[in-house]
Amino acid sequence: MAYRVLGRAGPPQPRRARRLLFAFTLSLSCTYLCYSFLCCCDVLGRSRLLGAPRCLRGPSAGGQKLLPKSRPCDPPGPTPSEPSAPSAPAAAAVPAPRLSSSNHSGSPKLGTKRLPQALIVGVKKGGTRAVLEFIRVHPDVRALGTEPHFFDRNYGRGLDWYRSLMPRTLDTQITLEKTPSYFVTQEAPRRIFNMSRDTKLIVVVRNPVTRAISDYTQTLSKKPDIPTFEGLSFRNRTLGLVDVSWNAIRIGMYALHLQSWLQYFPLAQIHFVSGERLITDPAGEMGRVQDFLGIKRFITDKHFYFNKTKGFPCLKKTESSLLPRCLGKSKGRAHVQIDPEVIEQLREFYRPYNIKFYETVGQDFRWE
């Protein structure tokens, strides 16, 4: 009996101790594995199971760099328990191209149709077509090729109709048109002023006697049965009474027509081109036109050559034209022969008008 009591109260046997240690170790291992498994599931759930993109974090405060082909992660948002910290400035986004605000066509390359900022208003047979063709070479000018006759014949159609005729221009370009009959139309100055008081006006003038003969020559080519130049010019040639009702004569009374324009536009907004100098020095005259329009002197001597057949300068071939460009067959037409006495009488008639014109515009065109 004493052995049994001593056996029960004594220390445990070695095999039993080993079993207890093994059970305790196994319990700790299972607990660790479960905890690790739960952590793994949490990470996977936030990344793959929820579809989060695989990426690399951005540079840390230590200055570590991303691999060149890695896509940086979006910065994590603050947790509810954390105050929102100011974020680093985001990279500047490349702005999408914007269309010009004044381009109603929806394409900045095409531009938009505008009312003209400049007009060639006169005079017929003075050289207006040459000025128009020469100035159209300039990249900052877009001009209507035909004569719209808006301010004399088609004013009732309205400004929207007039605008629809214009070429499309960019914000940096000038819209221009020419109608030589405007200069002698009584209502034209007021109508143009009502469109825009800032309109720049170009008047191409020429010796009024030469201009009248050129006008008659053109009409004769279309109507061979008209009376002679002498017969149309005078009411009484013996008395030297000139018929001012004939349009070919009346157009050359420049000082008279100019007064109507000066009622609405200051002289600084009107530029006068010499038809004679346009032939002898086209680059010089066009240089002054470009200055008046406020554009750089792009058109120079290199753009012209003198055509001996026509008797006036033509444009050399350009990048956009493989051939030289001259005015049409109706330009440079040989004038009909006029009695020198008739020419002298007309010079005397125009002299007081010419002098008044020189004084008004501050230029001597030397027509006498």
Provide the descriptors you would attach to this structure in a database record:
single chain; 368 residues; alpha/beta; Rossmann fold; five-stranded parallel β-sheet; two-stranded antiparallel sheet; 12 helices; 11 strands; disordered N terminus
What structural class do helix, strand and pairing data support? alpha/beta
Largest sheet: 5 strands, parallel
Uncertain residue ranges: 1-12, 38-106
Helix content: 25-40%
Please tell me about this protein's structure.
The structure is a single chain. This protein is an alpha/beta fold and 368 residues long. The protein has a domain at 112-211 and 253-334: Rossmann fold, CATH 3.40.50.300. Helices cover 38% and strands 11% of the residues. The protein has a five-stranded parallel β-sheet with strand order 3-5-2-6-9. The model is unreliable at 1-12 and 38-106 (pLDDT under 50). It holds the Pfam family Sulfotransfer_1. 3'-phosphoadenylyl sulfate binds at residues 125-129, 206, 214, 331-335. Residues 116-351 form the Sulfotransferase domain. It is a single-pass type II membrane protein.
